[in-house]
């Protein structure tokens, strides 16, 4: 089982528990993704970490 560390909470998790950002490649727990799941940015860019998603939203 491959263990990784979430960049948001710094806790480890398995590859089944974690996701990777397609922009910066940071690893994070989906539960640590504190963003409004109803927002347009989230629906269009669900492959981004919390930091990149907020940055992407602010650039618009």
Automatic annotation (TrEMBL):
InterPro entries referenced in this protein's UniProt entry, alphabetically: PHDvar_NSD (IPR055197), Znf_FYVE_PHD (IPR011011), Znf_RING/FYVE/PHD (IPR013083)
Domain (Histone-lysine N-methyltransferase NSD-like variant PHD zinc finger): residue spans on this chain: 6-35
Record key words, sorted: Repeat
A GO molecular function held by the record: zinc ion binding
Top-rank lineage group of the source organism: Eukaryota
Pfam families, alphabetized: PHDvar_NSD
Protein name: AGAP012285-PA
Organism: Anopheles gambiae
């Amino acid at each position: 089982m491959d263990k990784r560390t979430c960049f948001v909470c710094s806790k480890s998790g398995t590859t089944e528990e974690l996701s990777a950002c397609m922009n910066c490649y940071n690893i994070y727990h989906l539960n640590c993704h504190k963003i409004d799941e109803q927002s347009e940015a989230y629906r269009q860019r669900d492959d981004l970490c919390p930091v990149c998603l907020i940055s992407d939203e602010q650039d618009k």
